[in-house]
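Supplementary Note 3. Input sequence used for the single-chain structure prediction.
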Amino acid sequence: MLECDQWRNASETEFDNAREGMEKLVMNRLFGEIFCSRTTDDAERDEIIHQKIQIFRWIEERHLDIPSSPHNASYFEFAQKELLKMNNYRAPRDKLICILNCCIVIFSKWHRMDAWLAG
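The predicted structure, written as discrete structure tokens, is reproduced below.
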């Protein structure tokens, strides 16, 4: 893209935005071919992952050394929603932002808990 006359004089920010837009365009156009191919066993593998996730549904806050609190549910619900939003996006950067937001919520909770325990 840098060799194209249209982007040769673009600022770094403009070029980054254009590159991100191009990535989204390409991923939206190719998503079905890349991730929904008829020749893969994705559905079977998804079911196996789903079963493995179900195995760990018994884990609670106390197992992670997080004191139980009525406020925890809202934190973890928000973090879960961030991960579920990944299915709405196709571009890798957008999916990573969802993961980052989830991590920020969880680490924020841990940080507040540490401050509360120290205080």
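The chain has two domains: 1-58, 59-119. The mean pLDDT is 83.
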